[in-house]
Amino acid sequence: MKNIWLFTLSLFLAACSHSDSETPMENPDTETMYFPENNSDTWETKDISTLEWNQAAVQPLLTYLEEKHSRSFMILVNGRIVMEEYFNGHTATTPWYWASAGKTLTATMTGIAEQEGFLSIDDKVSDYLGTGWTSEPLAKENLITNRHLLTMTSGLDDANGDDVSPANLQYKADAGTRWAYHNVYVKLQDVIAEATGQSWNNYFTAKLKTPIGMTGTWLASGDGDDLSVYWSTTRSMARFGLLALNNGKWKDQQIINSAYFTAMTTPSQSINKSYGYLWWLNGKESYHMPQTQIQFNGALIPTGPSDMFMALGKNDQKIYVIPSKKMVVIRMGDAADDVNWALSDFDKDLWEKISAVIGN
Q1: Number of structural domains in the chain
Q2: Which pLDDT value is given to residue 6?
Q3: Residue 53, domain CATH
Q4: Name one GO molecular function term (predicted).
Q5: pLDDT tens digits, residue range 40-89?
Q6: 22 is a domain residue
Q7: 43 is a domain residue
Q8: Exposed, middle or buried: residue 154 (CB in 10 Å: 0-12, 13-18, 19+)?
Q9: Per-residue pLDDT reduced to its tens digit, 97-125
Q10: Is residue 178 part of a domain?
């Protein structure tokens, strides 16, 4: 009995030892998920002091971001903004290009079209685009499915630049036998338009952009009308990241079914184990880089969380999604160092700085 009384007293004294002026630490695991309202600039924030983060490491992170030509940076925890910073004349209302980070929009829309019964990812691409959409022999062209475009395993030659006209889509290997980072994925937008009987932009707007309150527009990349790049504000990019954090669910609406979303963000083939359906995956045993057939051992970003999956775009456009931390991180800007396709040394260095703030 005496021991129970002493234990109760110790708990009481411990509770009383905290000053009323201290800010209680919140547990992200028990906090409800927040979604910003559509057509509203209002977005709930979370004071960084309520998290067990190293506030002394925040300014070094921001200084590094500015030095590395960033235009915006944002961290969400459970959907709430913890950090939102703009640099080099950029503002909350300034649009910027997603580059290849926008591939994940196309992957998501492919899943939506499939769940609505318009297509199957295992269908041949020629079922929708007709034969002759490449320069391959017909037997080889007919091997290419929508899944191959989603996984970068079409077998088409990636050495011929961004042009995806038939003359430029030439045979390199049988579909499914070679992983190569190739802009031919954009043909999925044509597949979706043909399958749904709607323009790509109209279907995207109705099924993804409007339901989650995104703004932005698709623009030609300069390499032809078929190669489109999405431009939006940082907050619109963050909305898509928040959808991804919640396995394709926005508030009470399952925008894309969770089974497809899980498949999209897990290894999609055995050649590049760090690639899903147009999403990059951290923490895997090996990876391939764009424009090379070399296999590298280890995780893509060894300084980042092992469960992180990523939308990565040219010149360091980033959406990092970390389920274990209920976190989304956005970076937009110019190339941190040299021009790059998607992944760069900046990812590793940036995550050293972020980890110094948020801990392991």
Answers
A1: 1
A2: 39
A3: 3.40.710.10
A4: hydrolase activity
A5: 889 999 999 999 999 999 999 999 999 999 999 999 999 999 999 999 89
A6: no
A7: no
A8: buried
A9: 999 999 999 999 999 999 999 999 999 99
A10: yes
